[in-house]
Amino acid sequence: MLARPLQIGPVRLESNLLLAPVANYCDLAFRLTARSCGGVGLACTDLLSPHGLLRGGAKSLDLARTNDEDKPVGMQLYGADPDILADGAAWAVDHGATVVDINMGCPVDKVVKKNGGSMLLCDPESTVRLAERVVESVHRASGGAVPATAKVRLGWDANSIVAPRLARMLERVGIQAVTVHGRTTEQRFKGDVNHDGIAEVVAAVESIPVIGNGDVTTPEACVEMIERTGCAGVMIGRGAFSAPWIFRDCWALQTTGVVPPDPSEVEKIELVRTYMNFMLEFRDERYAMTHIRRRISWFGKRLGPCKPLKEAIRLAPDPESVFAALDAFLQGDLRQFGQNDDNDAPPQRRSAAATEAISAA
User: 37 catalytic, yes or no?
Assistant: First the structure.
């Protein structure tokens, strides 16, 4: 399965790599930032409430926002009402979804308490009937051009592993791909991903692709996921937060056997700048400032010593101060030297740009 572009029903992707629908992270701005690095076969929206979409709620519409550069795109819906989910799926088709996905794996309380997400794993028969309604709705709305898919976990807990049987049943009612997070709901994100559990789902279906998910934070982990489970593709979430170029690297390792060098420091800072500019373009200043303050800690993981940069951005009052801090970092300021760094290195001088960034913050 290595280096083989993924086919989901009538949709052929350019790679076998997908950006996961992670709540509060995978907005349009981040999807486009990841796409700019290469290797992304499909990027998914944040989890979408069909109720919110059908009511025209501002938050839901913002989460579902896409454009011509954001293709192919998966829209993932959550909930437990078959009628509402079916109508929401038709809405997604009408508003640009390349793939419509049903969330059957989210362990978050606010989703589970509404009988959505991984609560659907507790009653496979009812869940399959729900999925069949969504499949019919998507087919009717798209004329068969848009596939319906599902994302599951292995089960609610270790004593109720249902993913293999559920995947087989979902395939029979027309679900055209299943993504499996290799943990139970009870585990949430603790413990190691269970490759054997994903492999059992791969073995259980007849012909649809199974996509593995969980703990893929390096290209090597991606290849290991495919080789150990036999999955047709890999979905990456948290592994992309600090390195949106991970899709490029995973695809390169599969196709050439070599992982490209990391982007340069200048290129990494440019990605932060790109992400910030996209947020300002598609949302507003308040949204952009809130999210860059949260995300800079992730981006900073791949920038080396940069605590002063992260602090400057967390305290920045406006976008201009964020961009000034990025400029100052590239000029050699807003860095931090650890105990293992060269103790003989001369002390850094703070540039005018750095002073301005810190003062503004």
Answer: no
